[in-house]
Amino acid sequence: MRPASIARKTHKWLALLIGIQALIWALSGLYMVVVPIEIIHGDHFVHLHGPQQPLALDRVRVDINQVRQAYGDIRSVRLKSLLNDPHYVVEHGGGVTLVNAVTGTERPPLSGREAEDVARTLYKGKAAVGSVTLLAEAPSEIRGRAAPVWQVRFEGWNDHTLYLSPVTGDLLARRHNLWRTFDFVWMFHIMDYAEREDVNNPLVRVATIAASIVMISGVWLLFYSFRRRRAAAAR
To answer: Is residue 1 part of a domain?
Structure first.
C-alpha cells in the first residue's frame, strides 16, 4: 500500500474518532456552561451554614476544660447545635465523639428519626422525605467520604439527597439529579471513562497522540496533493 493511501486512511478514521470526542466535548461543555455552578453544588436547596437553630449558649453547663481533661490526644473541639441541644464535637486520637454540653454525657449515633429531623432543618425545600437509609459503604457519588453515613432522600424529580454523619449530624454532601448529570458529562468531557479520580488518565494521552497523528498525516496529504498538482502541470 502506498504511503499516501496509508496517510489518507489513517487521517480519515482517526479524524472521525477525534471528531466524535470533540462533539462530546462541545455538548458536555454546553451543559456545564448553561447550568450555573451554584445549582450544581446544590446551594439552592440547603442552608449552607448548618441547621437553622440558634446555639443556646445559656444552656451550656459543661466547661470546655472538662471535655479536654476527659479525652486524651485532643485535636479539636467545637460547639454545635444538634436537635436543639448544644454539643461538643471532640476530635481525638480515637476518632470523633459528640458530648452533650448540658449533661456532659457522650451522645450515641443518630437514629433514623433523628437523621430525618436533622435533614429537615438543613433542607430549604418543601418536598417530603422519601427514604432514610444508613449506608455501610459510601456510594460512588460521595466517593472518598468515610462510612457509615445516613442518606436522606427527598421526593421530587430532582431527587434531592443529603448525606449526614451519624456521629455528629454534620452535612457531608448534597446531591441531586442535575449534579449527577454534571458528574456524568464531566466524565465524558475529561475522557474519564474508567471512572478514575485521576483526570490524567492514559486515554487523554492516547487522544493527544491520535490528534498529533491526524495533524501529521494531514500535513503529509497536503504536501502530497501539491506535489501531484505540480507533476500534472509539468506534463
So the answer is: no
Same-domain pairing of 28 and 72: no
Instruction: Please give the tally of structural domains in the chain.
Output: 2
Adjacent-strand bridge partners of 88: 79, 99
Q: How far is CA 41 from CA 14, 142, 174, 224, in A?
A: 37, 13, 8, 52
Q: Are residues 52 and 148 in the same domain?
A: yes
**What pTM does this model have?**
0.74
Residue with grid cell 445559656, as numbered in its chain: 58
One digit per residue, the tens of pLDDT, for the chain of length 235 reads: 566 566 566 656 666 666 666 777 777 778 888 889 899 999 889 987 655 567 788 889 999 889 888 887 899 999 999 998 999 999 998 899 999 999 999 999 999 999 999 999 999 989 999 999 999 999 999 988 889 999 999 999 999 999 999 999 999 999 999 999 998 888 777 766 555 444 455 555 655 565 556 556 655 555 656 555 555 555 5
What is the domain range of residue 110?
43-175
**Rounded to an integer, what distance in angstroms lies between the CA atom of residue 212 and that of residue 230?**
27
CA 203, CA 117: separation in Å to the nearest integer?
45
Helix, strand or coil, per DSSP, at residue 88: strand
Domain contains 234: no
H or E segment at 162? strand 161-164
